[in-house]
Amino acid sequence: QSLEPLPMSGPDFGALGEEAELVEVEPEVKQEILENKDVVVQHVHFDGLGRTKDDIIMYEICDVFKAKNLIDVMRKSHEAREKLLRLGIFRQVEVLIDTCQGDDALPNGLDVTFEVAELRRLTGSYNTMVGNNEGSMVLGLKFPNLFGRAEKVTFQFSYGTKETSYGLSFFKPQPGNFERNFSVNLYKVTGQFPWSSLRETDRGVSTEFNFPIWKTNHTLKWEGVWRELGCLARTASFSVREESGHSLKSSLSHAMVIDSRNSSILPRRGALLKINQELAGYTGGDVSFLKEDFEFQLNKQLLWDSVFSASLWGGMLIPIGDKPSSIADRQATFKSFSLFSNKSFLNCFQFYLGGPTSVRGFSMYSIGPQSEGDYLGGEAYWAGGLHLYTPLPFRPGRGGFGDLFRTHFFLNAGNLCNLNYGDGPKAHLQKLAEYIRWSYGAGIVLRLGNIARLELNYCFPMGVQSGDRICDGVQFGAGIRFL
Amino acid sequence: AAEPWPENAALYQQLKEEQILLSDNASSLAVQAFLQMCNLPVRVVCRANAEYMSPSGKVPFIHVGNQVVSELGPIVQFVKAKGHSLSDGLDEVQKAEMKAYMELVNNMLLTAELYLQWCDDVTVEEITHPRYGSPYPWPLNRILSYQKQWEIRRKMKAIGWAGKSLEQVLEDVDQCCQALSQRLGTQPYFFNKHPTELDALVFGHLFTILTTQLTSDELCEKVKNYSNLIAFCRCIEQQYFEGHDKDSSSSATSRAAKRSLLR
């Protein structure tokens, strides 16, 4: 079984999620008195700034001055600390609140001091990864806070027994508005897809802008990729062999994410909506298509610590012009962006179906159009899942290790096919509604940190069509994004 | 026992009008001639990515049933396994001779063609780069073209041709043609009265050289010095290619061929 690539972990101070601990002073018995006491924040000091420029610091801490009473000061300082940490330029941030000393000190004046330790100019990491019959060593170099305003340059090099990839990324946030940022990436990535007997090497450059609008997060991206496809084995089907060669894709894409879940792995409540579109061909290149896809997830907590979750995925790939869509257009955009920018590993849309991370009970990406055993993906798909997560029976290891595990009962369904775009939408819906594959089963889920999860399920695949490969019985899966 | 040859057998090569180069066209024509001589029909399919589709990276390749075989040598073996052969009538000495001459053509003529295409700066600029990258958009056309050039030049260096000048290469072509001409003599084919794969190979290369317009006529002139070779090409063309679709070849007699392979 192949694993989806796990993102690189590192001293990244991204969203802390539900693991955030509150810092500072425990409110004491005298809390009521303190709350009523008016204070004025007179000075805010910073210890330990080196190359960081002042202006970006100012944005993050300006709220502290607005605090009116002591509890407010503590809260605003804590928020400022979080904001400073998420810039990714400090190794640690400590806050000290003290009364003001000195000549101009007011009786209710306070001094807030932030003691920070900047990250070194260059940090490196070295990992080894073992994947699908391949081992590789991964070397990462990061230059945090390059010019003093939280710019970051990352370089990653992966040397494997079969393939070599590398990538260079430059990231710059807007001072004062960390969620608005842009990054430029240069990369060469290779991937092997045994379910299609296909090898793909992508060399590309991309630039993307992220910005929030109200509660949603938007990403605008331009990407230029030189794609090279080849057969993985001499026994590859002729349909795949016909796709070998080079193509150039130049595309603009837009993605919107609304995420109100409390966690991305095993959330207890909240919803997620992701809508992605990509238009290729109008900015150069020889590949023209319009790709639309979406992902929706809803979670609700029920009695006795159990969670009910529903999810729906769907997408459509419309080739523009005479040329049919290429198998590379349907492949997973698993690129190493996931390791550079803060959240694009979530933008992993693909037009393949089946496997432990999508419709369970079927082999990896082994549903839908195929030729001589090589799966070609499809131009339209939908997939849905209903899950019930409960704590392990009898709750072993409660309060500790046992909390990482959940039992889950699932019902998955989906379909993947090619559409004849000449027919109308009614015909399309009809085609997607016939030959639905579905499965049900139960299993155990293990949560790995805040990023990934492992599943071990017992599955009953149903609605199997000829050509699909199933994996009935025990199926193991590891990854980031599950149906 | 001969196995049935499927009807939808196909031969893949690059695009004829805009893309294919001298050396690839010669190789493709050689295979087409060979299959014609064996009386095995095959249709020619032109694809821009034929070179990358091929399992060995070289054109042409044939798709027969669900098997894919590329290059003349393996194709001859494959066809033999199916029960068709042109060289069965030869004795051991003749077979060895045939192999030797085929090696000569591959080492001399084919390498000379590659040299001319990829190492002669004028030809590279005016003909090779524009043609090789023509199916691809900018900047991919330049990248692929330079990548291939670098690869061929590296190979030339490995076999010691990098230091040769164009005159020396043309001299080698002349010597090769002389050897072929002497062996051919006044016979219709190289061995007895029946064509073999050697005939197909020689025809493929010589015919392509004669009918391809390059930046200069020097290469063509070297071949034209030997009238029996020209007659040989004309004879094979008439016997195996005329009467089929006009696309597969053009008359060797018309020098300013409207259908010249390179512009």
UniProtKB/TrEMBL annotation, chain A:
Keywords: Membrane, Mitochondrion, Mitochondrion outer membrane, Transmembrane, Transmembrane beta strand. Residues 39-119 form the POTRA domain. It is a multi-pass membrane protein. It is found in: Mitochondrion outer membrane. GO terms for cellular component: mitochondrial outer membrane. GO terms for biological process: mitochondrial respiratory chain complex assembly; protein insertion into mitochondrial outer membrane. Its main location: mitochondrion. InterPro entries: Bac_surfAg_D15, D15-like, POTRA. Belongs to the SAM50/omp85 family. This is Sorting and assembly machinery component 50.
Automatic annotation (TrEMBL), chain B:
Residues 28-148 form the Mitochondrial outer membrane transport complex Sam37/metaxin N-terminal domain. CDD domains: GST_C_Metaxin2, GST_N_Metaxin2. Its main location: mitochondrion. The lineage of its organism: Eukaryota, Metazoa, Chordata, Craniata, Vertebrata. Residues 174-234 form the Metaxin glutathione S-transferase domain. Belongs to the metaxin family. This is Metaxin-2. GO terms for biological process: mitochondrion organization; protein transport. Interacts with MTX1/metaxin-1. Associates with the mitochondrial contact site and cristae organizing system (MICOS) complex, composed of at least MICOS10/MIC10, CHCHD3/MIC19, CHCHD6/MIC25, APOOL/MIC27, IMMT/MIC60, APOO/MIC23/MIC26 and QIL1/MIC13. This complex was also known under the names MINOS or MitOS complex. The MICOS complex associates with mitochondrial outer membrane proteins SAMM50, MTX1 and MTX2 (together described as components of the mitochondrial outer membrane sorting assembly machinery (SAM) complex) and DNAJC11, mitochondrial inner membrane protein TMEM11 and with HSPA9. It is found in: Mitochondrion outer membrane. SUPFAM superfamilies: GST C-terminal domain-like (SSF47616). Involved in transport of proteins into the mitochondrion. Signal peptide: none annotated. Residues 244-263 are annotated as: Disordered. It comes from Tinamus guttatus (White-throated tinamou). InterPro entries: Glutathione-S-Trfase_C_sf (IPR036282), Glutathione_S-Trfase (IPR040079), Metaxin_GST (IPR033468), Mito_Protein_Transport_Metaxin (IPR050931), Sam37/metaxin_N (IPR019564). Keywords: Acetylation, Membrane, Mitochondrion, Mitochondrion outer membrane, Protein transport, Transport. GO terms for cellular component: SAM complex.
